[in-house]
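Figure caption, in words: inputs first, then the predicted bound structure.
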Amino acid sequence: MCGIVGAVAKRNVVPVMLEGLKRLEYRGYDSCGIALCTEGHLERSRSTSRVAELEKQVNGRHLSGFLGIAHTRWATHGAPTTDNAHPHFSGERIALVHNGIIENHAVLRAELEAKGYVFSSQTDTEVIAHLIDSLYQGDLLKAVQSAVTRLRGAFAIAVICRDEPQRMVGARQGSPLVVGIGENEHFLASDALALAGTTDRIVYLEEGDTVDISLNDCHIYDAQGRPAPREVRVVSVYAGVSELGPYRHFMQKEIFEQPRAISDTLQGLAGISPELFGDGALPILQQTDSILILACGTSYYAGLTAKYWMESIARIPVEVEIASEYRYRDSVPSPNRLVVTISQSGETADTLAALRHARDLGMNRSLTICNVATSAMVRECALSYITRAGVEIGVASTKAFTTQLTALFLLSLVIAKIRGRLTPEQEAAHMKSLRHLPVAVSAVLALEPQIIAWAEDFSRHNDALFLGRGIHYPIALEGALKLKEISYIHAEAYPAGELKHGPLALVTDKMPVVTIAPNDDLLEKLKSNMQEVRARGGQLYVFADSDTRIMSQEGIHVIRMPENYGQLSPILHVIPLQLLAYHTALVRGTDVDKPRNLAKSVTVE
Ligand code: F6R
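Bound structure (fructose -6-phosphate present):
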């Protein structure tokens, strides 16, 4: 999704901004641009191609300057054209980049057009540039502060003005923005990752903040315009993050990082205790009589998986809702319900809005499973568990998912223990399985060569079905999502028992049917469902636990999972599905890390 980088320094800021844009590329974008204040005027270069192309343009024009803003745009209002790409100008005076969506842009546009402003794009962003210009009376901070009071929606902005060539002003409301502190230089960015290698001293702005930076000063104000001291944090987790090492894509690298990501997520785990989720967890969890999980996409599937664990291990009722639906649904709140959000980024607009909606309904007990400790989600939830997957660059989530599952399993055990449903023997057995989990994951990754052999077959199809039962049904959903998002093959997942209620009509000898076959209580039922597929000529591709006795034969291709992992089996079974999607996409030649139309971290509704 959109990315912002800005810099004010005593050196040419172009290299810093281009490097920052490259670091933000993984978030997905369809155009990019840069604006500089140089020798008393504003210069701009924009491209509907990649950042590398923008770099060529900028170098070709020998652009340089000590003050600049840059942006990667993921189109919402208006097609991905050069005119719609940021930075947007108001006349020759104001330049601005924006992440988010301005909901009242139409009203503001009409108002500004009546004042004589001429628009050169279809974006909601351009209204902000003109609005600031219309309010400008020689002080950029004041103009921005009064402009933001007129904006409805979500935004993070960075603004420069031709008449103040050593100053940049930023504001955030609903979209993240950080300040980077350097030696006699300052930076703004939508993600600290953009500034890796430039500075590790970062200030995370809070909702409603505006910031005024120059070479030597950084002043932050809250929503009421009062000076607001914010903590400077040293963020050093990003070293080497953008290096691929021996891998071809970040997705592949991240799939193979899962053993380490899981062991980091479990680091220091000595036993099952409520404090794993924060100091005040015990009283909150003791009062909890039910759970509402809110999330989107892959994180939602982690929530669906957790429902099985929580209901069976902790015997607590769980509802799992797609955040973008829940936030607008007329639902029935329950005062003793714990609201659990799951998010890799911690900035997903729909999940944040759903959390706030739940709070408005009176459900104040909240917990998040999140991969970014400094995110809005963590700040807004009373309790949290930080998954330590490390930065995830591939748009298709992999290591974030398995670490979310690991944390959700821990939460199920903690609640079970509080509710008197976990004996010391059971706790010891679960701890043993968790400790062994990274090794078990490594053994599954060793199946890659067999999966590569299947990927060739899959790449020739335009459709695929995924079947799972019970706790492996959400894993089938996740497998189908992975395949469609990076290989563009249409894929659907069903609980296998549902086949005969409709989807069986799709099954022919042209339809590959991926089947997750753990050795659990539903195995015999699943085998019958597989027969239903075979009877219609469907080709089965089965990931079977070694003790299932499902054999390869005509129309049934089998890859054996190294071990049956009991309740944690979903974490192992998703891994071959990630590899299958990855290698199928590789054969089809798609842009694996940046699939079309998609963005990492969906910070707009
Ligand atoms: C799919 C994927 C998305 C995200 C979803 C939520 O591979 O990555 O479906 O899971 O956009 O994002 P987070 O977890 O950041 O809230």
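Residues 250-439 form a domain with the Rossmann fold fold (CATH 3.40.50.10490).
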